Amino acid sequence: MDGKKTIKFFEFDSGSISGSNFEYDYECKAWSSLGLKTYKVVCSDGSYRIFDPPVLSFPLTMGLGDTFKHTSTCDEYDSAGNFLYSSNFTIHLTLEKEEVITVKAGTFNCLKFSGWELDEGVESNLDIWLARKIGEVFRKYSDGSGGLIEKRGLISFTNGHFTYCPDD
Asked: What angle do CA 105, 164, 21 make, to 5 degrees?
């Protein structure tokens, strides 16, 4: 993106890549001197979103209890590359604690972030778990009353030249 080398992070809404009717999206992210930035999100139907400026998803350094907030503009495009609309995107997170979490890809020592995200005018509560040298391993969205909207867990990852994909 704009001359930056990004890493592609896959997310599977169904939690599985088997079968032919699953939906997915992937995010193009890269580390900068400020932290981990999200440049683009691509959906399985070919539509995509570009952030300007790129969203600072996580600052490079934070201590327990520290909070950060980042605002960006998100441009939406259909699968043919036609511009659809722009919306504001804001993420506001606090580094809550260290926690062990188990997902399909394994068990990880993580930093847990909690806060909220404003996307296309909809505000959702957000919890994210990050593992060292892996990145995001679990994400949970909920509404204002604590009702679950969506959750995503890591099902496999590549570290160096090796891909770790546990058996079903």
From this structure: 65
